[in-house]
Amino acid sequence: MVKHAENCLRELKDYKGRLRGYVVEPELKAIIDDFIAILAQHITPPPPKAKVVVDLVRVKELAKESDQVRDMLIIRDAAIADIQKPLAEEPIAASATGITQSEGALAHLLTDLDQVSKILYELDKDEKRLIEVLLKNTCKMKDNLITEALPGVLVEQLVDHINSLSLELLGDVLIVSENGTKIVTDDYRDELDHLYTANKDIFTVLVHNDLPEEWTKFRSRLAHYQLSLLKALVEQDDPTREICRIAHENVTMPELLLDSINELALDTVGDIIIETISIPPVIEAEDLEMVRRII
Length: 295
What we know:
By secondary structure, the protein is mostly helical. About 55% of the residues lie in helices and about 5% in strands.
């Protein structure tokens, strides 16, 4: 019901995408269609916007006042400036799973990028091949053609596993079956296309089936900045400055950032992995090899 009502509203607003994977009884469909049609009669366009006249003299005055206020508010603390400098020189654009967005990528089209990338991370080689085949064929392909493209693979089992992960992370299926055709759900095509074009390595690199289940779960729940911090702990002799930089960038404190990773490790692995009382903090010896494999 909800999906069909959403599709009616999308049609009313000329939105190109449509939700799939549902069946509505004809009687109920007719009721929803009639209700939306009645509702559409009461939707009125917004009133015309008033003409805006820009006072250029006043704009210059405000700009001058703004510059004066900015100069007074500049922080001259050397430590803070030292932390902020690399942020200005090394802009970072990444999703919560460390998947970078290509230059010009529109954030409003990639609202589910983190969740979709986590799904791809959990897939095996054949499941990623299935999605790759669909992407190369405009996200829609007949079952018999998929079977020819993926010989010896049980396609329905792949779809079931992909959709079970999708329901858990997105609340919706990623691939629907309609009349002997597999179709990628419209709402997630932009994210998949972006990951395939701008971060194509995710289809081959992010496969950690050799990791124990609890470590796989831990890795899939790490945010990009948490993964960056773990990498600094493993690769740098003294990661203090990098920890401060990451914490500053994410508007938090270094101690809270370290604690967030340990709390996630407790929930998934069953124990903390960072010795926070050490100066500088270090990965616990028994967990170092697993963390190296994760990063």
